[in-house]
# Entry
Amino acid sequence: MSVVQGGTAEVTSGTESRYQQQGSVVDPKMKQEVSQLLDVLCHNPRVRVALERMGAFVIDHNEYRAQSTETHIHPGYEAPFATANDWLNYVHPDDKARVEQVWQSVMDGRTDLFNCQFRFRKADGSYRWLTNQGTVVYRLDGGQPWIYLGSDTDVTELKEIEAELRASQQKLEASLLMDAQLGIPNRRFLQQQSPRFFDLAQRHQQQVAVMVCDIDEFKNLNDHLGHLRADELLLAAAQILQSTLRSSDIIARFGGDEFVVVLLNTTPESVAQVADRMIERIKAMPIAEGDLILSVSIGACCHIPQDQGDFWRFFEQADQALYRAKSSGRGRYVASS
# Structure
């Protein structure tokens, strides 16, 4: 179907071999009709111009002749293939099985219409994306395709634009899940991903913990040091909290100076150890300005989830534990009952 000037014919496809075995029978009356049709399609100047504008071509499968027109994919007027189905050898290997399956349905007579999009190898070895559409106009008495009218449209640039749009969309979606200031996931990430984490834990009957961490009296830091310096300390605190976790654990900025940590496949004892490390490392943060000391209060809930929607139930219990921790003083850890 698609024409590549200067291409070397390769081994014919299985589709062509099956076709050749079928033989061909031509009804004399139909042969006359086809002859008249080909005469119009291939020799009428007005029709040829119209076909060229559409990038159309005509294939005679009985006596293989490619009456191709001048298009980007059909650079000449000669048939470059050894057989009418040899074009399949120029389809990209990743697309070939899919294209052959669609084309075989045309060969078998299950449909007259062919519509497929695939990558096609040109004479220089490069691939271009084509949308190939066509229909069988006449079939032989045995049901095999005889006259096929089709067209190729080069959609490579469209495919490239689509790929760029998908990449931009993925980048945008990823950015919406990250906190731009601290470079860690945000609340939206927790909303989208927590059901997956909790479903995994529930199916494997593993305990999962939700920790709510709040930097104590961060507003006072803003007032004393200014927003710029306080933001620098908040970034440093986030990095310290993250450094206490395993690669499988998640930390996200929930809002302001509050962080949520999700520990997978853990135990209450392990959660307490992680909390203690967080408290000690935050307390040891050097602050050049005066005698200010940074501290973090933490509440946590650790259980085996009952379903994938348990994140918010765990969060509420951890948040209540955080309230009790802050009420009893700064830099404390309290686990929910």
